[in-house]
Amino acid sequence: QVQLVESGGGVVQAGGSLRLSCAASGRTFSRNTMGWFRQAPGKEREFVATINMSGGTTYYIDSVKGRFTISRDNAKNTVYLQMNSLKPEDTAIYYCAAASTDYRLTTSTGYDYWGQGTQVTVSS
Fold first, then answer.
1. What is the pLDDT of residue 101?
2. Is 15 helix (H, G, I), strand (E, B) or coil?
3. Band of residue 102 on the pLDDT scale cut at 50, 70, 90
């Protein structure tokens, strides 16, 4: 069992930055691929980024490439999402997720555990 708690959301002006954190409980964190998703009002949950167990491999949705960086610290059981050059269209609830396998990692069905989400609002 893995429990996830996100933090770091808030309100920021367009062009600003935020860093989201996701603290995980459980002994298996270092063996989980981790991901970030987001859900804007009236829209479906959307994949944002994923990072493998060691942190050596990452993958991003095209709309955030070059602006967002996913990273992890296995000693601290924490995964991060550094978000720079934020745009109003980045406004959403951001969710952290943990996967037990390496299948369908760009879809929500590929993940077994989810946090409660943290709100990110980007004003224009």
1. 86
2. coil
3. confident
